[in-house]
Amino acid sequence: MPLRPPAVFIETFGCQMNEYDTELVRSILKDSGYRFTDSADTADVVLLNTCAIRENAHNKVYGHLGALKALKEDKGLVIGVLGCMAQNLKKDLLEENSLIDVLAGPDSYRALPELLEKAAAGRKGMAVDLSEYETYTDITPDRIEGVAAWIAVMRGCDNFCTFCVVPYTRGRERSRELDGVVREAEALAASGCKQVTLLGQNVNSYRDGTHDFADLLLAVAEVRGIERVRFISPHPKDFPEKLLEAVAGHPRICKHIHLPLQTGNDRILQLMDRTYTRAEYLALVDQIRTRCPEIILTTDIIAGFCSETDKEFADTEDLLREVEYHLAYIFQYSERKNTIAARKYADDVPAGVKAARVTKLVEFQRGISLKKNLEMIGKTVEVLVEGEGKRSRDQWMGRTGGNIVTVFPKTDTSLKPGSLTSVRITDATVTTLYGEAV
Ligand code: SF4
Q1: Average pLDDT in the 265-289 region?
Q2: Class assignment of domain 7-127?
Q3: pTM above 0.70, yes or no
Q4: Is the CA virtual torsion 298, 304, 308, 313 positive or negative?
Q5: CATH code for the structural domain at 286-375
Q6: What is the Å distance from ligand 1's center to 429 Cα?
């Protein structure tokens, strides 16, 4: 290791799990003497923590690599690609793009210090083996302290939805032990964190041999100092009554469920191998709303999956109308290398049709989101203050238990980030509630 520790700049793409993994990588590298910087210009090492789930995330990474070329030529920058894209493309990436010195997949971050040391000496390397056991449970993520934090409670996925690359890039499902997760939540609470989000590709599959996900959720909700617990994402195929009971019954478990639908058409659901039907999904929504009427539901949608007809697409729009989600993340299907869909089905919906379907659904959903938010006017909600508003330092910004961004004036001087306060809603847009502290 040189006298002055090398400076690392990490750029993170994709989902919350990747954000969490970046915190793990920071911790691993910090322990090996690396320091961190906030731009590629001042870095000796640039790591791109990548996502392979959608084509545009993929393209963005290639764009960033191109932008690093000059820096590499100027000062011999070491460039590493981490995460799902590294895992999925393996050797292709090393061979095709000589800019890259290091590849490390999601189960190989412990190998990074050695890989980077070798790269600094001019030797490229990669570590992309998937593990059945790696959960990094002994590593404390190097977080930027704040009022909210993520905790990964399981890694990998065994579901093999036909469109999804995650089972190939993140490997088999494995869960951390409940005690380890609770200790992490206790440490977070001690550092001032008020909200934790439990992360897993399919959290209802969580099993540590003794406990299921509902046990874990309740245990974390009992950690003194943690005011709110969230989780993403459950799979609609197995949403046990016990978990619903926990969400509905515990005051510190947020009344928000992100329930990925993907499509409202039965034939497409079957092609995606989602293992539930439209009717079963709707029955679950009913069950959730009956048990917990104040629940906020959000979802993920893929438009333009292989062979989806206009009529089948209309079933998705129709389901959005019926369920009235508070928010939906809507994407067009993009074929991912190695997935079952890539091997079995033709990606035959024209790009223009996919784009038009996304635009149509986004517009439609915006109307629903606005309607739902306008219905909040006059109600009083509990908000966890996260910081100052983006538009004005005279405003606080926080979120409701249902995860809706809420902005209100700083009239109460006792509030600070991390405070929970009641806010009476006076106005709303598609994405934001406005109100006053009461
Ligand atoms: S449940 Fe399906 S969509 Fe979610 S990570 Fe697993 S394979 Fe992918």
Answers
A1: 98
A2: alpha beta
A3: yes
A4: positive
A5: 3.30.750.200
A6: 32
